[in-house]
Amino acid sequence: MWYLAMRRNLQPRESWTVSLDEHLAWMRGQHASGAILLSGPSADRALGMYLIRADSRAAAEQIAASDPFTAAGHCAFELIEWEIHQALGIGPFSEVAFRAIRE
Known about the structure:
By secondary structure, this protein is α+β, with helices and mostly antiparallel strands. The protein has helices at about 20-35, 55-65, 70, 85, 95-100; strands at about 1-10, 35-40, 45-55, 75-80. Strand 2 (about 35-40) and strand 3 form a beta hairpin. The protein is globular and about 35 Å long. The model has no long low-confidence stretch (mean pLDDT about 80).
């Protein structure tokens, strides 16, 4: 099953204690394991999105929650069931385009 995780900033970036390098290392590991197929920021960088492959919603939530940005409380995520064909050709990400695809 596939899930789209939309990650939103909860705090101003200048107050974050987790570095971008920590997040990118986590993301590389998720890509290497096959848990995340694609990922990227929105055009304004206020929203991050990644496509998660997991056996259940609970497993996808666990993956999304393990993002260092989310685990530190800097961000929150919304998880949406997603069909893999919907992901093909997406990008660059924009929230407006994403909302249009969802409807």
